């Protein structure tokens, strides 16, 4: 996810600064354990489960975890949000792919493209980067630029209600990151790590 | 076994159809932005279907994992690259095509 | 199944060649940039099919490297070869 180096997670999240140090340590340990597992899984897939490869794999996975913790500090996310996001994403990608394929095959090329500006509710940092990438892979929309509180989107068909669709996507991403968006204002609602 | 073969053949062929759609869009769509739509969406779905078709055939879970890893990587690359190209094109003042 | 893998790989190769028309033709620099996107996905798909057809799992690793390189080259290309805002129109 290469979007902009300056858009990394904001280290001054309210939930990491106004809580005692002990809480922060548990966050790092919990998130570190999770990422260690994830990287180990990747190593296992890459090496096809060869047992002796772990001689190199173990230190690699450890270093990868430490580097990832340094680059992207622990963030809040919710498991139900994740379980909700996956089928949503798969279904929308299928829709997006068939939609654009239909337009490409059609003799008249039925498109009506244009630029749409979407006012963002999500807080800056990882959730926004994630939203931008998701939007680019979903039906009829392509993120083009990020302005301070607006996402510039190129839409393939401006006759459809692009803003309403983007709102739904933003809600799903917000749920994934355990953030609740209440009409127009941001409200962080920290759950599990 | 033949059932799996049939399923995987259907997935592979469907995936290739999406690649064809991506190529058609690339050739027929009027400007850089719409062509990006065609390439990123159709080709990613095409690759996804081909990955599924091959995963159904594969002998080990590690291979399935590697196939999925490749797909996820390509998706992240496609999303970031398309955004980078579209953003830079806008910056350079390339006007989006209008009907 | 074997023939299907090879036929589809060939079909995707033809797609890649057809797409090259756009890359060579332009008309804008941005259109040429699409080559990265095109090769990134299509060549990976071809390699995956060939890996299965030839029963050469090592080709999966080649596909993995292609996927990684496609992203890196595109980013480098956009950043280096196609600098931003100073010009107001694209010099084709």
Structure description:
The complex is a heterotrimer of chains A (193), B (99) and C (92). By secondary structure, chain A is an alpha+beta fold. Chain A folds into 2 domains: 5-71, no CATH class; 79-188, no CATH class. Chain A has helices at residues 14-17, 21-47, 54-71, 79-105, 126-137, 162-176, and strands at residues 114-119, 141-147, 150-155, 179-182, 185-188. In chain A, strand 2 and strand 3 form a beta hairpin. The model of chain A is unreliable at 1-18 and 184-193 (pLDDT under 50). Chain B is mostly helical and 99 residues long. Chain B has one domain (2-91). Chain B is 85% helix and 0% strand. Chain B is built from 3 helices and no strands. In chain B, helix 1 (2-28) runs antiparallel to helix 2 (32-57) and helix 2 runs antiparallel to helix 3. The model of chain B has no long low-confidence stretch (mean pLDDT 89). By secondary structure, chain C is mainly alpha-helical. Chain C has one domain (2-81). Helices cover 79% and strands 0% of the residues of chain C. Chain C is flat and about 45 Å long. The chains are: A alpha+beta (193), B mainly alpha (99), C mainly alpha (92). Chains in contact: A-B, A-C, B-C. The interface between B and C is large, with 47 and 45 residues.
Short description:
Chain A is of the alpha+beta class and about 190 residues long. Chain A has 6 helices and 5 strands.
First-last Cα distance of chain A: 21 Å
Helical stretch count of chain A?
A: 6
**Sequence stretches where pLDDT stays below 50 over 5 or more residues of chain A:** 1-18, 184-193
The backbone outline of chain A, from C-alpha atoms, is globular
What helical percentage do the residues of chain A reach? 40-55%
Strand tally of chain C is 0
Radius of gyration of chain A: 20 Å
Largest binding interface between chains: B-C, 47 and 45 residues
* Secondary structure tally: strands of chain A: 5
Largest beta-sheet details of chain C = none
């Amino acid at each position: 996810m290469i979007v902009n180096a300056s858009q990394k997670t904001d280290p001054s999240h309210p939930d990491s600064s106004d809580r005692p140090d002990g809480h922060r340590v548990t966050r790092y340990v919990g998130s570190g354990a999770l990422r260690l597992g994830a990287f180990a899984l990747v190593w296992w897939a890459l090496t096809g489960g060869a047992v002796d490869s772990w001689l190199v794999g173990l230190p690699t996975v450890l270093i990868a975890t430490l580097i990832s913790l340094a680059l992207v500090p622990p963030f809040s996310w919710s498991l139900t949000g994740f379980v909700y996001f996956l089928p949503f994403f798969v279904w929308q990608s299928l829709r997006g792919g068939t939609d654009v394929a239909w337009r490409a095959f059609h003799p008249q090329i039925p498109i009506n493209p244009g630029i749409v500006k979407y006012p963002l509710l999500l807080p800056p940092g990882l959730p926004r980067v994630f939203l931008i990438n998701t939007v680019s892979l979903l039906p009829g929309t392509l993120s083009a630029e990020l302005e301070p509180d607006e996402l510039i989107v190129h839409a393939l068909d401006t006759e459809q209600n692009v803003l309403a669709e983007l709102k739904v996507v933003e809600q799903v991403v917000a749920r994934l990151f355990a953030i609740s968006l209440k009409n127009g204002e941001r409200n962080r609602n920290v759950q599990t790590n | 076994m033949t059932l799996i073969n049939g399923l995987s053949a259907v997935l592979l062929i469907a995936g290739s159809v999406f690649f064809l759609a991506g190529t058609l869009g690339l050739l027929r769509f009027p400007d850089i932005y719409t062509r990006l739509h065609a390439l990123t969406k159709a080709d990613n779905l095409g690759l996804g279907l081909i990955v599924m078709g091959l995963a159904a055939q594969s002998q080990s879970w590690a291979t399935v994992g590697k196939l999925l890893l490749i797909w996820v990587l390509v998706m992240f690359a496609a999303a970031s690259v398309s955004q980078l190209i579209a953003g830079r094109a806008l910056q350079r003042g390339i006007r989006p095509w209008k009907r | 199944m074997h023939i299907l893998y090879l036929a589809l790989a060939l079909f995707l190769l033809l797609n890649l060649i057809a797409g090259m028309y756009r890359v060579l033709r332009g008309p804008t620099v941005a259109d040429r940039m699409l080559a990265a996107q095109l090769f990134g996905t299509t060549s990976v798909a071809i390699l995956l099919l060939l890996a299965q057809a030839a029963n050469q799992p090592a080709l999966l690793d080649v596909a993995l490297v292609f996927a990684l390189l496609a992203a890196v080259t595109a980013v480098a290309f956009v950043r280096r070869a196609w600098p931003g805002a100073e010009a107001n129109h694209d010099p084709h």
